[in-house]
Amino acid sequence: MKVAILQMEGTNCEEESYIAFKESGFEPEYLHINLLKKGMLENYDMIFVPGGFSSGDYVRAGAIFAARLKAKVWKDLKRFVEEGKPVMGVCNGFQVLIELGLLPGTDGISEEPEAALATNESNRFECRWVYLKKFSDTIFSKHVGDKITLPVAHAEGRFLADKKTIEKIEEQNQVVFRYIAPDGSRPDYPWNPNGSVNDIAALVNSYGNVFGIMPHPERAFFWYQHPDWNRVKRERGDGWQIFNSLFREIIEAKNR
Amino acid sequence: MNLKKIMDEVYEIDLVNASDEELMEINKEMGLALSLEEMKKMQAFFRSLGRNPTDLEIHAIAQGWSEHCSYKSSKPVLRKYIFGIESKEAMIVMQDDAGVVEFDENYAYVFKIESHNHPSAVEPYGGAATGVGGIIRDVLNMGAKPIALVDPLFFAPPDYGEKLNPGIKHPRYLLNGVVAGIRDYGNRVGIPTVAGITYFHEDYVNNILVNAGCLGIVRKDKIVRSRVDKEGVKLVMVGGRTGRDGIHGVNFASKILDEKSEEEKQAVQLGNPILKEPLIHLVLEANEMGIIYGMKDLGGGGLGSVVGEMCHAGGVGAEIHLDQVLLKEKDMAPWEIWVSESQERMLLAVEEENIDKLQDLCKKWDVEMSVIGETKNDENLRIFWKGRKILDMPLEFVTAGVEYERKYKTKRMKKMQEILPEPKYREVFLRLLSSYNIASKEWIIRQYDHEVQGRTVVKPMQGLIGYETHGDAAVIKPLHHSWKGLAVTTVANPHIAKINPYYGSLYTVDEAVRNLVSVGAKPHAFSDGLNFGNPEEEEIMGEFVESCKGLGDAARALGIPYVSGNVSFYNEAFGKNIPPTVVLMAIGIVNDIRKAVTADFKREGNTIYLVGETKEEMGGSEYYRIMDAKSTVVPKVDLEETKNRSEEILKAMDESLVESCHDVSNGGLAVALAEMALGGSIGAEIDLSSLGAMRDDFKLFSESPTRWVCEVREENSEEFEEIVKSKRIGVVGGETLKIRDGERWLFNVHLNIMRERWKNALKEYIG
Q1: Taking CB atoms and an 8 Å limit, are B188 and A218 in contact across chains?
Q2: What is the CATH number of the domain that holds A208?
Q3: For a tag on chain A, would you pick the N or C end, based on fewer CB atoms within 10 A?
């Protein structure tokens, strides 16, 4: 299964993402947006938009990456999603998917962004580990445990949308992960690191094939990437569970 | 100043017939920052050629001879003390832009620390960002992938209340600007910032220090040298365009700051991480393809320094066509192009047959390139402008420059130590926890992405998630297929160096070793960042000489080489020099990251040991500072002890006997214990009676070197005691830190109270 890891100036999590896919049994390939041409996406089974600061995030985070994708391959991308192929974005990649209108995607694909990932309530970039609780089983989360821990590293991660959109997201069970306090209760800062509405950390679209997540699963792929590895014994990192979920739900299912 | 226009933008300067007075006038008008002696040397040279120089020639020489480029004041001292410490693993030492040391059979690590002080004092955000950008290029141009950044910073206290000199900005403004600059550059470029220092002292009020270090990893067969040793190799500029930003940066760096410094903002360069990020990809990909013959980044001194040093090092000449350089603004004069320090530029030496391949890569990554000249089979540098030759000089004269044996005087302070009435221990302890040099720097650390690249296996903040404490060093796992790791730390002790620079240096080396050993790393190599005042003052030069002597003595005894470094002089403003500030970036090897150790207490019932001797040496201590007590008795390091204790601890760690480990430094034993307790969110009960007969404030707050606190499981304690010379001082457990000396209780403080003091002390000043 071929995964296109999209690159442009300022994406900077592509290497650890590449390793995560490769180690999970996928065939990842870097695809720089400068080399991306119409018709090319058909050659891939999945698209991954990595984290980073595409174009410096000097405009709104992810806005320029999204605009360039739209200008180059919007039709291809829509077809990709309509066909049910998986698309995943992490951190800046999540921001890009929202800017594209692929997420939250309460009615499939939207031509205009329906939501935003706004500046953190703390008003600054923060890098810290958070606890997440799973709220929905999708191809990205089916084989993920109930509670996991992953790192966040962003300045713009506060999910915001109008009341109606939020209601619809909840109604359709589109929230995949929420931030929680260590004891499992509703989190205050810093457990909800950005002030996200309803503690939303990760979403899936209404089709169930486009997934965006603010924390970085690819940075918690191996057990030794966890900050508490000398306290808690793990076979693998918690982030691995997400990649493994995809593998089992797509590749194994195909071979079954 | 007599000048004659010889073509557009190029003038000939009458230097040959100038009087001394006129020479200094030329010096001033052209902003050269040279001495009369140097101007006369230049004059004699052109007299011998029987012609006058162009403005470009004068600027090129001034650039090459600046303190920043030539190390003219420091080199003789460095040669005597710092250079030449033997090491089997050091591969490239003090030659190119960064040091290269063996990591394993196939890989080497590359690192360096550098200062970016003056620009940051004038423009904290841009200055700090550029400092980060520059040090990344130093590592990149060895062909290495940058994998970690460090940032030691020095400011006046954030609550500084005295009147500020004209043009000087408040430390709070500077601190916030610098942190934002490092954050926005480092995070965008995708390299984790994993270590650093934020240090406060009144003497930095006029002149802050911003140092930045970078660590990289490279396959040995892909190491690129900053030299070309063959004629006919094309010189190609890649990356950013050349503009008027950063003109005379090196001359600016070699001057004292004053109220006019604000007007020299032109000397501050502007960084662009989003140009840098693809540039890193491009360079690494080109290197992987084997098409880079030599490479050097454009930093201080710009194109002039780079062409000169790269060709001079390889023993070839060069021909440059300045009109081929891509510009940000059209009407730049050749001399401006030659000395501009615009950021994000690299000079690649590429053989003609590979130019097309480089062109293709540039297209993919959207990076501009331009062939600006080639190497020649002679010793001269020749520069052309629109077809006409406007510079023709031997490279040796321009780059080898000058050297000074500056006079120096060693200041000796009389030995004295005030003895205070015995303090209220609980109160002093809490005051120390909230002292700004000890209090939590989490606010700063978390603004830097320390996780990107996924290699940070021991984090800068260590402990239970949400309760982390300051770690001693971070550990990076550079290679996917190997368990071997690199520990990174930075250290500086200006408070001790100010009293005695020699012992300050010993202490700093000892602390570097302590920090690395704390995480389970064998100390392996150093990069030295030397920040001093005005070297033309004999006492300052004396501080420099003593500091270097201490650095040399300590590292030689331990067998750890300095493989790269940087000297920053003229950190003086309004008659006030900074304290001698030796910053070390230290790298250690962790043989197996699975055995790395962190600083946070792990489990109730474990035994706590103190390793090392505690002495009544309070000079420079945080305790004496907050009590306003005087002492010139600074901690002395016994290097034999440093060696033995660290080997013992590493052995115990290798046998997995150590649950947590933290070195004893600022604030002494009491603070070290508090930090370990905070990180594990678990208390301890301590009895100091095994430290012998000494007043308890010395036992608790002395900053004697070569000490660690180790936590060991009860079942391993016998084995630990056999390996490590140590004293049992207590047990982990409870929700408070309880300390007594035999029957006498000194204090009992709840974790929540400690955390509140430690975490919130800097909060009101920052953010």
Answers
A1: no
A2: 3.40.50.880
A3: C
